Amino acid sequence: MSGRALSFGVVAGAYERFRPGYPVELFDMVMAYAGYPVRTALEIGAGTGKATRLFAQRGVIVTATDPDGSMLAELRKRVPTNVGTVQAAFEDLQPGNRYGLVYAAAALHWTKPEGRWSRIATLLEPGGVFASCGGPFRLADPAVEEAVRAARAPFLESDEVASPDGTPPDHEMQWPGTELQRSDWFTGVQQSVIERRVTMSARDYVGHLSTISAYLVLPIAEREHALSQIEQVLPDRVEMVADITVHLARRRHED
After folding, report:
1. What is the dihedral of CA 75, 77, 81, 82, to 10 degrees?
2. Which of 51, 127, 135, 195 could, after both became Cys, cross-link 105 (CB 3.0–4.6 A)?
3. How far is it, in rounded angstroms, from Cα 31 to Cα 39?
4. The whole model's pTM is what?
5. How far apart are the first and last CA of the chain?
6. Is the pLDDT of residue 119 over 50?
7. What is the C-alpha to C-alpha distance for residues 43 and 146, in angstroms, rounded to an integer?
8. Which CATH code fits 8-138+161-198+240-251?
9. Which backbone phi and psi does 90 adopt, to 5 degrees?
């Protein structure tokens, strides 16, 4: 895994505090697509358990996986007893149990492309559901966004993660839907968007930025300088566009 993928553990507490959770609409969307009550799920890159709680609190028996022990330690503080944890990168998960649902929340882009879909398929029951969700967390006011871009520019050109397969942001089907459509393992690929707006203080917004991998891999002094420069150009409160793009697909039945 890349350094960016493994950078979050040092700020696990801040990640839990400043990253938003997931709305019940996401759970409802996945269950409606499944068409039956999903009993078991495996989560790829669970982090501090933002999405884990959404599913586990509604009766799904979740196995949460993450390569970082500090992130899983935060997760265990907040999840119900029907959650098991495995400290491992997705690529290191051992085959065995199959699940009704395999999902990733803002984490799939950290997995290696080689064998990604065949590995996910082996973790799913035939007919089981795969779900991926995520999306950029962007300032709603263009003037504030430009001020932040200018303040960030000496340190970072961008703080976002590019599409793993190069799909442009304006393409009708976004990644990973593009790859799912090409995979022989999956069918019924769907893409939906849950619209979401989040308002927060300038300090909390900077706290959120402090959990972004692009900043975490900067030298500490440089990171602190960048975040300080950004905070200086912010109004007291900022509104964020935090839409969640959801991709759903079904594992093909075995012949």
Report:
1. -10
2. 51
3. 11
4. 0.94
5. 34
6. yes
7. 36
8. 3.40.50.150
9. -55, -40
